[in-house]
Queue: 2 jobs
Job 1
Amino acid sequence: MSDISGLIAYGSFFLVLALINGIACLGLNIQWGQTGLFNVGIAGFIAIGAYVSALLTTPLSDGHLGGFGLPMALGWIGGMVAAGAVSAGIGWMTLRLRSDYLAITTFGVAVTVHLLVLNAQSITGGSFGIGFIPRPFESLAERPVLFGLLNLLLVGGLVVVLYLVLERLIRSPWGRVLKAIREDERAASSLGKHASHYRLQAFALGGALMGLSGAIHAHFIGFIAPDNYLSAVTFQIWAMLIVGGSGNNLGALVGAFIIWGLWSLSGLAIGSFFAAEDQARAAALRIVAIGVMLSATILYRPRGLFGERTTVSRHIQNV
Amino acid sequence: MNFQFLANGMVAGAMIGLGAIGVTLTYSILRFSNFAHGELISWGAYATLVIAGLIGSLAPSLALSFGPFSFGPALVLAAVIGMALTGGLALILDRILFKKLRAKTASITVVMASFGASMALRALLEFLFTSRPVYFSRDLQIAMPIGFGIRITADQIALLFLTAILVLALHLLLTYTQIGRAMRAVSESPTLARVAGIDVDHVIRITWILGGALACASGVMLGLVVQIRPFMGFDLLLPLFAASILGGIGSVPGALVGGLIVGIAEAGAVVFIGAEWRAAVSFLLLIVVLLLKPTGLFGSQSR
């Protein structure tokens, strides 16, 4: 294989993963950016989407529940619906309480989901994970350039559609109500907007997108295991949104590319500059760096690279 | 039926309770859930470990153990210094991060910053000490029977006493001293407290020092009974939150009672359901409290 085709194959692999992270980041943008709901359990919602989709679509295996062998699209929808439903349940329990309680409960969701997929071995395969997950364009896997580009086209197309729909949504009356509630709940309530209903809808929609992101990731890689879904994932998605600019869908996607790029580059650097026994320690420094970056952005540039646009209504912009 | 799980649960619950008191103090006075509190526990344990090693190498006689215990004067001294240092770490975090955010943003942004700080602090520990577990002492402890089929080690008895003393001291401090009254006033209403001439910044500093010191005590206890590793505090975070919400956020006795309930429930789950499900107990308790009584057992107002 020539250098250039290797580069294309690696480039499309990188871009697909960045886009998949971008989908979760768009989900977080609905929850945090638009509505001000704090979710510290992103990894858990991603895991729900990944496992549900994998279980629905894989062939029969002794290692885990399944054998449903459903089409991939149904798996993705199933993963989205499951993650959205869990989000709705959590939201229903906590959104009427103080905002911190939602944060603490979502944190508990991530811990518990990880525990479930690790220990419910007869259903999820436990620490062995789930393999043989059908991949898009699997029959072309022998031709890495074509395979990579087709996957990029599929996921890229999906992200473009999602982006356009979400942009439309935040400009809709629904999106403006979310913003109104975030900025001044009492004023919004006095206009007859039921704040907790809108919050619940936004939280469930965001959770569903995280589930979709997990499902696509599971099918793109073809294998999942519980340790894919640790708190570091939650942390990465947060860093993407905050650095990119919370409240801005474009910012969410650009942030996903930047953070995923830095993450991948530093991974390559650690792999080539450190001896094998030091690599785990060096990898810890990456998390320190992202933690400092996240805190510094909140402190010194709270709007991120692309801040939220203050007016979203096209009626006002046209005046 | 074997009641051993009650003893194990009380020891675990004492550690959770000490940590939860810090969470509940931060919540009631600074009004945010501190996700970095678990890291204060881990940093306290590692700080104590390093200082105990230094003391032991300078004065080997201090490292000898007291009678039936696995620790000696070196560790006691190191724990006191470690508590001060952990309080200092909490103050530094407040100075460079939380204080600036408190002034200009909503409290939920401070929660997010504490989440970022938590990841960074934990990864830094992993970098400095690797993720391999370490121990204060390699001595094996013999558990003594105390009736009802329960066996308990000398260390565990000492730790239960230490918890009781620390909680009693904190309770007296909050109830009878000037700073205790000031802390309660700020937790009721920072604005009114300021109007009444209370130095709110001073109260906040004392809160961090107390929370950090108790977190360190909790970490040293966890290190003595189990082991020291960078994730020790992070894994304790959900039990801490569950305990402080169960006890009623803002209530110091509630946090201890909540900690004991969570600890005993976890130990019971290990015996009756299976050790691998232990970590889910806190989540279940949390959900039950949020559904039935979000103000907790000893919570005062509707929050």
Job 2
Amino acid sequence: MTTAVLIQAFWLVFDPYVLLVILCSAIFGLFVGAIPGLSATMATALLVPITFFMPPVPAIAAIVTATAMAIFSGDIPGALLRIPGTPASAAYTDEAYQMTLKGQAEIALGAGLVFSAIGGLFGTLVMILFSPGLAEIALKFSSFEYFWLVVLGLAGAVFIGNTSVLKACISLLLGLLIACIGLENPAALPRFTFGMNELMSGVELIPMMVGMFAVSELLRYITNLDPPPMIVNKNIGNIFAGMWDLLKKYRWALVRGSALGTIIGIQPGSGADMASWLSYAMSKKFSKEPEKFGTGHVEGIVESGAANNSSLAGAWIPAIVFGIPGDSITAIAIGVLYLKNMNPGPMIFVNNPENIYAIFLVFILANIIMVPLGWLTVKLSTKILRVPRNILMPIILLFCIVGSFSINNSVWGVTLILFFGLASFLLEENGFPVAPAILGVVLGTMMEENFVTSMIKSDGDPLVFFTRPIAMWLAASTFIILLWPVGTWAWDKLRSPKIAA
Amino acid sequence: MKFNDTITGAALLALALTILQTVMQYPVIPGQNIGPGAFPGLLAVLLAVCAVLLIIKGLKAKSHEAWVEIGGWVKSWFHLRNFLITVFGLLFYIYFSDRLGFLICATLLVGVMMWALEVRAKLIVPIAVITSLVIHFIFYKGLRVPLPWGILAPFQW
């Protein structure tokens, strides 16, 4: 059974068309990641309208490959210009730039590349080992467990890593309310449609995400007052020299970074950015030479470079097992899967296991081809960094327009990208994080369905939510996350007068 | 464009109350205590609570912030103009793409934006035309998206 499925998956991936898609999206991802101002999430949002026309496996392969590449190549402008190419490289940009100043650009970029690939493979391995088992447990879940799982995921998205929990909460609620728009609710009553036919089927996910992640970033570029970056003219030598020694020296740092990254990825709402910040901090804490951090020391780059790539794979675990995205990228990917009628969740492991194994294979393949293609990108980096962004941005805008138009062949999609582009730009200007909103939109329908089904099953008795054994544990974990900030706040209040006295 | 938390909170509170009022009018399903308004109603109540907390936070802020803080880009005419060009460019596309057709709208939009972002003058027209044609070819011919022809319909290919 398993071997047959594996062979089937193998054929799905090693199909010339799929391989071509993987190669093209790899090049696309490397390019987008290397250009400051274009992030991995934006790469995904721009790819989605194209994947709309593909079968499920190449569609997912395109997203997986492009994001893995973009997260690595974000390191390149970080090291050469001191500007992170994607937010996930921001944690160690200064470090990498210091290394370049010391004449060690090769080591910084080489470490970024090699350890990104290893981190990505680590995350993939965890995904391969754990997701089938988790799916088997998830098969036993009823609406009560799913309800709590969604709430737990959303609570994590709001409470972990946001500077303002209140604003994250509001952002999440707005996302959930957007999910309520339209006919698709248990009672099939048109809600919040303002009498518009376009809103009957709800807000389409793809134009919304193109607006939130591509158009808003474009607006941010256009309103950015920073002077254009200085381009360094530098020949980059052999980036693989000395990597073996680094691997031996920092093997524990590598494992620690990859493990932390995977965990951060699994936890909904925070992805590669958070993984890289946290593991850089952890690396400094556990290092034997913490005083060298910030002066061009490679250890932090090894650890957080591995962490941000491993988090990508980690984020797919809850996405395919439960249909709960682990970060904004998988939130978009889940939207794509729904469009392909390949609804994520444990049933996918029963009905289409070959597709799941194909995703695993794509992850392995993407992280392996990252090494030669990444090497090529580094070689060409001074040319890529010279690509004029003032020509690129109008073209991207046109691409957003056509992409959102093609979902329904209607200009309504373009209206949506404008609305959500402006909304997300305004939200970020006011300190509201966007990631919780996107999770809310993706999970809103699932949350309501499970909530209403459970309430009907229990005759309106909310206590049933706490009596089933697994549901009880999930509820308890949710309340721990929810009450944690309140608890620490109260603890500080109680203790501080004594310290003052 | 940064609004004071009190203003944002008040706007969100108004939104939450409007939603609550709307869902109150939703029909009740006989024999069931949970109707289509239950879930959005619950969300609206939570949103109202958060909005009130945000208002309190805004009022309690130690140094009272400006009601509306205008970002640096609004004061710089160059950046403000480009922002408006992008937004109105999209609106232009939304309203005119059916009448004028994709090729004309796309060329105009890309061209005007490149002019606004100070691309060298002699590059603007060729790039705008080629980009529009290439994207049209990929989506219209390759992916069979029926991009509108508009007034170019007689020359359709």
